From TrEMBL, chains A, B:
<feature type="binding site">
    <location>
        <position position="97"/>
    </location>
    <ligand>
        <name>substrate</name>
    </ligand>
</feature>
<feature type="binding site">
    <location>
        <position position="135"/>
    </location>
    <ligand>
        <name>substrate</name>
    </ligand>
</feature>
<keyword id="KW-0028">Amino-acid biosynthesis</keyword>
<keyword id="KW-0100">Branched-chain amino acid biosynthesis</keyword>
<protein>
    <recommendedName>
        <fullName>3-isopropylmalate dehydrogenase</fullName>
        <ecNumber>1.1.1.85</ecNumber>
    </recommendedName>
</protein>
<keyword id="KW-0464">Manganese</keyword>
<feature type="site" description="Important for catalysis">
    <location>
        <position position="142"/>
    </location>
</feature>
<dbReference type="InterPro" id="IPR024084">
    <property type="entry name" value="IsoPropMal-DH-like_dom"/>
</dbReference>
<feature type="domain" description="Isopropylmalate dehydrogenase-like">
    <location>
        <begin position="4"/>
        <end position="348"/>
    </location>
</feature>
<dbReference type="InterPro" id="IPR004429">
    <property type="entry name" value="Isopropylmalate_DH"/>
</dbReference>
<feature type="site" description="Important for catalysis">
    <location>
        <position position="189"/>
    </location>
</feature>
<keyword id="KW-0560">Oxidoreductase</keyword>
<feature type="binding site">
    <location>
        <position position="249"/>
    </location>
    <ligand>
        <name>Mg(2+)</name>
    </ligand>
</feature>
<keyword id="KW-0479">Metal-binding</keyword>
<dbReference type="GO" id="GO:0009098">
    <property type="term" value="P:L-leucine biosynthetic process"/>
</dbReference>
<comment type="pathway">
    <text>Amino-acid biosynthesis; L-leucine biosynthesis; L-leucine from 3-methyl-2-oxobutanoate: step 3/4.</text>
</comment>
<comment type="similarity">
    <text>Belongs to the isocitrate and isopropylmalate dehydrogenases family. LeuB type 1 subfamily.</text>
</comment>
Length: 352, 352
């Protein structure tokens, strides 16, 4: 197959981890006889430095023309803690989500047996955890009307959802649930919010189309508790944008495997694959960042964007092998030898 | 002193745990020579059953006339999972918060050494945890304009904050921080929300009035992570209503002492003290519920509403003694003898 992939390395450790994913994807392509056409483009702080825009039109065109987007991470300390800065890397992220129609962020949380002891939670609480949070990504309070009144002394934000937006996200949730244990949890705050009541109503209406799926409805505060108590009691969760922001981050720390977690954002025009970790500016340029989450995001891309399951499995297998043989960066090496980011990438590409 | 206390037992295990707190408060009053004037009133499902209203005017009058309110818990399964029910116990809660002006919910999370192994988190992660979350309780998206458009196919909720509402809450946060380690964390989503930017701006402006307090600003998603990773790295956190709802519940499970956690809601007219746990309808009437969170809420009331520190200390001491001597309900007794709710209350009252 001929695969057109847009490459958005971003800031901080982004370029370093993306480079390793490129090596691995190229190796897989050779092995399975695919032709990869990579197109790089700028986004984030590096794009602001370049042209004053965190998600320039030229980058958008590259993404629109691609079959899939592989993304590193964005963010730079010079923009942190300055909510009044007029241009910020995160704005690029929001603009990209909106313009590419990336309506569903798919965030798996699972455990790697060899990493389970890294978790802040006790082993017996997390063993077997394998859940997916589907976060709505282009609606809600992130994109509603906002502003000031009373000479700036009153501020407001609006959370708006349409039935169609909820259906689109929930449909994906039901479909994913059908491929797994057929359990779906709709997370809302329907005891307070009207938008949550529309979520619940809409999902309830859809239940009849998926008679095999058992749906539960839980309040976001209860889920924030149960995710820490019994994460392995969940399977597929669907939720709105802001709740998803909080819960996916909370879920990311429970498995002890945060540095390895991939994610996908499904779009109307194209889909995007990225590690869940940030741009860790402190580690940038040191060749020490763990590339595995990005490499596993590439596996998600093969499966999800191209329907190439054997290729995805080959990547996951070689990642498991690197973990088993200790070919890992310093965050995972413990008292053993730490490999460099680039060494891990080379090893994976060679052994895939 | 003459202390007028409104007693809102509520639903489920509410009456049982409240009864034990009454015994202990009466014993403390005898010991320290106070006269307690208790006035009971209905709220929650029991009030709906009685008069169709979860927070009747008569109950409001009782609360307004009191120096403090001691509250049990509300909620009944017959109202659960039915967001379209026109009258629900939670509405009583919201109405009560609004009418009493309960603008600040103060939620401590701390560990009891003897309970630390109940936590889903590893011991080394939680030892020394002693934090307070201050949740704004009468503003934000809970009380903003909401509704439907497009024949019910679009729903919206509005999050509104005024500078004055933020100042009122933040002032309390700074004051509490001054009595502790002088560290305050303002939790917001200022990279997205205008209301969060007003929070940050307002708190930043107040920093000069409390030069000894070190203030940090963190995004709610990052806090949801760090609360699980390093809860003992926090001291006092302030946040808006919805974020506080999620984070206080998340924090409640990390210490392993959830069944013991008290809370206070500071009001314009009076203040209210309640355990953080719910009405556990399954346990109602069985004399098995743990009364200690309610008893410790009474301790908070003595200190906070009446400025009676020795009385509060006496309650905390006898609670610690009951834990040390194993005079506890079945949730804490492990393989030892489990005491009944009423037996624990009697023992505490006798030994205070
Ligand atoms: C940077 C920020 C705007 C963003 C979000 O809130 O969506 C981030 O937290 C994320 O989850 O991708
Ligand atoms: C019952 C519900 C409305 C309430 C809230 O969200 O405030 C509860 O979760 C709480 O935290 O007291």
């Amino acid at each position: 197959m001929k695969l057109n992939i847009a490459l958005l390395a971003g800031d901080g450790i982004g370029p370093e981890v993306i480079n390793q994913a490129v090596k691995v994807v190229n190796a897989v392509a050779t092995k399975f006889n695919h032709e990869i056409n990579w197109t790089s483009a700028l986004t984030g702080a590096c794009a602001i430095d370049d042209c004053g825009e965190p998600y320039p039109d030229s980058t958008h065109e590259v993404c629109m023309a691609a079959d899939a987007v592989l993304f590193g991470a964005i963010g730079h300390p010079k923009y942190d803690n300055d909510p009044k800065a007029t241009v910020r890397p995160e704005q690029g992220l929001l603009k990209m989500r909106q313009k590419l129609g990336l309506f569903a962020n798919v965030r798996p949380t699972f455990t790697f047996p060899s990493l389970i002891d890294n978790s802040p939670l006790k082993r017996e609480r997390i063993e077997g955890t394998d859940l997916i949070i589907l976060r709505e990504l282009t609606g809600g309070i992130y994109f509603g009307e906002r502003g000031r009144k009373d000479n700036g002394n009153t501020a407001f934000d609006t959370c708006t959802y349409t039935r169609a937006e909820i259906q689109r996200l929930a449909k994906l949730g039901f479909e994913i649930a059908m491929t797994r244990s057929k359990k779906l949890c709709c997370v809302d705050k329907a005891n307070v919010l009207e938008s949550s009541r529309l979520w619940r109503e809409t999902v309830q209406d859809m239940e009849k189309d998926y008679p095999e799926v058992t749906v539960s409805y839980e309040f976001v505060d209860a889920v924030a508790m149960r995710l820490v108590q019994w994460p392995n009691s969940y399977d597929v969760l669907i939720t709105e944008n802001l709740f998803g922001d909080i819960l996916t981050d909370e879920a990311s720390v429970i498995s002890g495997s945060m540095g390895l977690m991939p994610s996908a954002s499904k779009g109307l025009h194209t889909s995007l694959y990225e590690p869940i970790h940030g741009s860790y500016p402190q580690a940038a340029g040191k060749d020490i960042a763990n590339p595995l989450a990005t490499v596993l995001s590439a596996a998600m891309m093969f499966e999800d964007a191209f329907g190439l399951h054997a290729e995805a499995a080959a990547i996951r297998d070689v990642v498991n092998k690197s973990l088993a043989e200790g070919v890992v960066t310093e965050d995972l090496s413990g008292s053993n030898k730490a490999y460099k980011t680039s060494e891990v990438g080379d090893w994976l590409a060679k052994n895939v």
